[in-house]
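Title: Prediction job returns without error message
Component: structure pipeline
Severity: low
Priority: P3
Assignee: unassigned

Description:
Job completed but the reporter wants confirmation the result is attached to the right record. Sequence as submitted:
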Amino acid sequence: MLAHIGIQKKFSPDPLIVTLCMTVSALWGNSGIFHLLVDNNIISAAAESRDALFPGLLAISSAFLVIGCVGTLHKKGPLPLLAFALGLANIHVLALFNDMNLGSSGIACNFMIVTVISVYLVVVRFLNILKSKTAFLANRVSSTNNISMNNLIVTGIIANMVSSSVLCGKFVGTTSILFIGQVHWMFTSAMYQIMVFVASFVARDIFHATFFSFLSVLRFAEGYSLLNQPNLSNITSTSSPLQTLPLLPLPFMVVFTILFCCLAFLMFLQNLYIGIYIFLFAVYCATLTLPSGIAHNAPQAVNLVIFITSIIYMFTRLYLSKPDFKISQRNSLKEIIFSCLHFLNIKPTKSTLCSYSATFNFQEVDLIGHAFNSLAAFLIIVETHASFILIMVAGCMVYITGLLSLSAGKTLESSAFIFYGIWWIIWGLVKYVALCMSVKKFQIAVGIICFLILNGFLTVCLITLNRAWFINSLTLEVLLISFLLHTLNILPGETIIAFSILFGIVSFYCFLTALLNGTVQTPHLPWGDPFLKHGLFQQGCMLCPLPAKKVVSIKKIAEIMNAGGVCVIPADIGYVIASACHSPDSVQKVSQINMENTDREISIYITSLTQLQPVKYLLSRELWDFIEGLWQNPVGFVLPKIGGWLNGFGLANSSSLLGSSKSVILYISDCEVTAQIIDLVGPIAVRSLAKGTQILPGQLFPKPLRKVDGILLDMAYASYYEFTVVDCTKMEMGVIDVLKVGSVPKIKVLDVLHTVITREENCINTLDSVDL
């Protein structure tokens, strides 16, 4: 499973293939765990085997059938047959639980089909490898649909189907009881949700990363609840009272309900359908506050609705991931909501049906850490084994968030989250052990003092970040002091409850601020200016990057460039140093910035053919037709400096600074932020920074880069292609040279060239015949 995750982006970008492999891994993994439980006599009777295996296999069989149907509609060759064979084999296993006279020949036949198809696919794969991986390269070029960027989301949906099938089994009659034999389904779902959470972060889809991180902890809590149930062998048939499961901590479910509601409400504003799906989990968490918990009919009924909705969502998402699918732009349902919520200025999204959220970026990963900080703080109110176990789980999620924040380059925030995560893990473990055996209070006090010192250092550092973070860390410091005084029998336990609620509220405010500010343009909740600004700001040595997700920032950068300034902006190939072509002084300033590991050549960026119209008459007809034929593809054209066409861009006095001595590269930009700047400024001259250069808030830039007049920070954009560079200096002779093959294959460039030459020859023949 992990190996496939590692190679999926290189070899198998198709969401259908990823989903099929993940579903198969879930099937074999849980089947192996089931046989281990039987071998160790944890599951012994036939009724127990049915209750342990039936609900999970029912969900996985449904997933296989959905994959088979979508694969058939997409004409995926043998893959739908493989999915159908696995689904029918598991359906036959389910039928055997009701009638043992059916026999296992049907299972054997289906698995024989699976074996033959698997061998066939392995042989085809090795043949493709021997043929220079031509099939793989074709797949990479064709996978450009935004809806399939985060391919593992469907895996998280299948995990929801499995867990919901287990929990609603008693309600629909597929199982007779909830017991320890079903725990492996819940823990497997939790593991898959964590995997999808991290994958969603890597895909810059923070909405789904937040959603699946919540679900992973929820599934673990459900599994822990099932794990503490007595085995069916210990329950006699004469026991008349219904078995009730121990309640999950009430604050845990209340906080989760609020978190899911906030996430669902803001998702409503971007995608109505997924907002409804998330809201079902808020309703489910609310029903878990009932006296009998997951043994009550209400949460089981909600799980049945989630199961059915997950099947529909899975089918829809897989079907819409077809590469040639065109997304409708009708927003009638959303417009009705927006008219009711007119005070919210929603950020525009590219599509209605696409669940990939392009508005979030790496910065908003903090909201996940704040959410679990709030959850752990409210769990302190109830001192039970379940509470301390869940505190440790929440601490693990905060720690993972810290690592992800560190990968985004946020040093202070990541350090704080890593510290918070370690604190919750150790505190939950110590309190859990204290409930089971006697622990010396002096040793606990020494540990708390160590955390007090470390958090005090973090609190001082966070003075330079913003007020919300500082207050959050300061509140935790007060909470740690109350823990210490309570351990030394100086303060009562009610003080800890009061300060933990305070810390939970502050963390929830930080969560809501990150979620709201990353979703809508107005209104915004304030983070607050830092209490103490770093000295480097006052000396002018530190540049403050402007966030590209704000229209005001893009307009500010455009004003600077129109006034002759030089700015660092995001482009298709990474961050570049840019200036307006109509300002010769700024182009000269770009050429004079001396930085190591940067491209010295200055290129020209445009976004529309209309920007070439003023110099069209200076270009040959063949060259114009060639550029027009490759338009809207990521292509760079190496053009000669002859003909005076550069003068039309205002580069008459600075043409010698561009490109090489005889040519310059003209790029067609497809980056949304760059396109907005060019629309306001016109064609721009750019120099690319070193590959992989990151622009981060609060970063100390090298001296040469401090000469720029503005920096635009866009951490939400990722380039999924490379430019194909074509040398057009000999275009008049009908000759081109593909210097670099990127996302546009060489065969397509040659096809366009052939079309242009053929059209030109036909035009010449027509003119000759007219003259005759």
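Comment from assignee: result matches the submitted record. The mean pLDDT is 80.
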